[in-house]
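Work Package 3 committed the consortium to producing structural models of liganded targets before the mid-term review. Because experimental data for this complex are still outstanding, the team generated a predictive model from sequence and the ligand definition alone, so that downstream docking and mutagenesis planning could proceed in parallel. The input record is reproduced below exactly as it was submitted to the modelling pipeline, together with the SMILES string for flavin mononucleotide.
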Amino acid sequence: VTNGLDDAFRDDLDATLDQAWLRLTRGAADRRSAMHTVTVATAGAEGPQARTVVLRGADRGARTVRFHTDVRTPKVAELAADPRVSVLAYDPRAKIQLRLSGLAAVHDADVVADAAWAGSAPGSRLCYRAPLPPGTTLDAPGAADPTDALRAADSETGRPNFRAVLVTVARIDWLYLAATGHRRAGFEWDGAAWRGRWLAP
Ligand SMILES: Cc1cc2nc3c(=O)[nH]c(=O)nc-3n(C[C@H](O)[C@H](O)[C@H](O)COP(=O)(O)O)c2cc1C
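The resulting structure, written out as C-alpha cells with the ligand in place, is given here.
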C-alpha cells in the first residue's frame, strides 16, 4: 500500500460498503477530513449545477447524508423542481472517490431542521441573517459584508432562511485507486438491503 492506508477492505464488498459509510460519517464529524466538504450536483433549469457544501451528517441506518443551506439559494428551488442529486466526495490521500445518487428532501420547520439549527455554531448562523440573498448583484465588492449590527443581532433572526437537506442515498459508486490495482464497486439499495457488485474501474 503506497498511501499508508490499511486497505483490508479492498477485495471485500461488505467491508468496502462499511468503508464508504465510515468515511462519510467521519467526514461529517471531522473538519480536517477530506470529505468534510462534498460536491452536490442538482439539475438546474439551464443544466447541471454543482457546488461545494459542508457535510453535516451521515447516517448509515437511515441511508442519509445531510447538509445545510439558505432557502434563498437557487439550489433549493432546483431541489423542489427535481430532488435528484449527485453527491461527490474525494479523499486525495486515501485515493477514494464516493459518488452518491439519491433524492433530497428540504426540511424547514420540522424536528430535522430544528435539531440541525440547534447544532449550528454562531459563525454558521450568521450567513442566514444576511439581508441580501446569496447571488444578489452588488454595487461594490464588499456591499454584502456583515455589519457590526448584523453580527450582534439575535441569531434566531436567521432561522427562517435556514434549511437542512437530507439526501436519501439509493446508489453508491465507490472508486479506490490503489497501486496494487484499482477497485470499483457499485452499491444499490433494493428496498431492503444494499446490493453490491464489482465494476471495471
Ligand atoms: C468550502 C465551502 C463550503 C461551503 N458550504 C456550504 C454549505 O454548507 N451550504 C451551502 O448552502 N453553501 C455552501 N457553500 C457555498 C456553495 O458552494 C454555493 O456557492 C452557494 O451555496 C450557492 O449555491 P447555489 O447558487 O448553487 O444554490 C460552500 C462553499 C465552499 C467553498
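Reviewers should note the following from the model. The helical segments are 13-29, 74-81, 111-118, 122-128, 148-152. These observations will guide the Year 2 experiments.
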